[in-house]
Specification:
By secondary structure, this protein is mostly helical. The chain has 7 helices and no strands. The two termini are 40 Å apart. 30% of the residues are buried. It comes from Parelaphostrongylus tenuis.
Length: 257
């Protein structure tokens, strides 16, 4: 509980600093700092039951991911008044953010994965039961055909309406939410990898992080992802503070924006 409170307090402090910051590069770095400490707080949530623990962790990670996505999109919306250093830092900050988002989305899936397996088995059983009931219904209807069951020959279209029990609908809806997290985790990770492939600046940055922190994968433990993020943020902040008074260097290949 003490660590949870500590990380929450640090996250809130970084948010206040970010809200007050007028420099857009410093602001996004403070917001990414904030996100990391919220993620770390999720690892130290205390709860009376495993189920409620997972729900609280899920909520923190989901909300943090939404914040990261929002602040990154805001930083990515460049205008004519943006400084050259904004453009120079943009691709690496976005790449770092995408890797964070991908890992968070994977963990959203992972937290719900056991429920997803249970729901899948329930849906399979329900589907078999529904199919059996439909066959029985169609068999009895075949013995007593009604005018409403016929299809008119001059009809150009046929509309099929599928009805299902509310429980089946809710299970399928939850399955989609869970599997969407996994799908977007992979999509965003691939996007980050492609961005690094077309930018020498991004590639050098990611390669340097992997030498220090080890290679990051989308299913990495949250603690490793946080260490990776904090290292990247510290490097970008140090570079920006050291060099922002000078013109930014020009990379051989244009960075992906």
């Amino acid at each position: 509980r003490c660590l949870y409170d500590f990380y929450q307090s640090v996250a809130k402090s970084q948010k206040r600093k970010g809200d007050a910051e007028t420099d857009r590069v410093n602001r996004i770095l403070l917001y990414l700092d904030m996100a990391v400490y919220y993620i770390l707080s999720a690892k130290h949530v205390s709860s009376v039951s495993p189920g409620s623990l997972g729900n609280r962790q899920y909520s923190i990670i989901r909300e943090t991911n939404e914040i990261v996505k929002k602040v990154t999109n805001s930083f990515s919306s460049v205008s004519e008044g943006c400084s050259p250093w904004h453009f120079h830092m943009l691709s690496r900050i976005k790449n770092l953010s995408l890797r964070c988002q991908s890992t968070l989305l994977y963990h959203l899936y992972h937290i719900r994965s056991q429920n997803a397996f249970k729901s899948y088995n329930m849906l399979v059983q329900m589907d078999a039961q529904i199919q059996e009931e439909q066959q029985q219904h169609n068999g009895s209807a075949g013995n007593n055909p009604s005018p409403g069951s016929s299809v008119h020959s001059n009809s150009n279209q046929s509309v099929t309406v599928v009805t299902m029990p509310t429980k089946v609908y809710e299970l399928q809806r939850q399955q989609l939410k869970t599997l969407h997290s996994l799908m977007w985790s992979h999509r965003i990770w691939q996007d980050a990898a492609k961005r690094a492939d077309i930018s020498t600046t991004d590639l050098a940055f990611i390669s340097g992080l992997e030498k220090v922190c080890g290679q990051l994968f989308l299913d990495a433990p949250l603690e490793k992802m946080c260490a990776y993020m904090l290292t990247g943020i510290a490097w970008l902040r140090a570079e920006y503070e050291r060099e922002k008074g000078r013109p930014p260097p020009v990379s051989k290949r244009a960075a992906a924006v």
